[in-house]
Amino acid sequence: MARVRKSRLIEVSLLLMLCGTPGARGQQAPASKPEVPVSEAAATPTKQEKIAPKTEHRFWDKENDWLFAGVGASRTLDYFSTLNLRRRGDKELLVTNDLVDDHAAFAVVEAVGTGVSIGASYLFHRYGHHKLERWTSIVHIGLTTTGAVRNYCLKTAHHPVSGL
Ligand SMILES: [Zn+2]
What does pTM read for this prediction? Predict the structure, then answer.
């Protein structure tokens, strides 16, 4: 009998331990639960802070390097196409002929145009409008190149090679 009682006691104590353990966990859980979101909440902003600068690129990254090079190239193309237009006796519509004929001054105008475009891109970048930042260069290249092509196409339809 004594042996049976002992084993029963062990059984009961084991049951209590088994039952008590989840109960203890259940009691601990509400206490620890608020801690988990707090630590997660504390960890989340630091993670975002680490990620945020990565998504925000450097201004002089590879894409902008190429875009600004494109703007410069299209401006150069515009410069030569306009001079070509003038040599053929046509008139520049956007700036005065005197300015175009002063090649150094006209080159400065083209350089300033490039600079203003890069400056606008920088402002968009600075205020977080990264798509507009890129599009400034893309639209500039598109419009300037179209203008340059138009310059070459004007009155050169009968001998287009000499225009280039
Ligand atoms: Zn940007």
Answer: 0.60
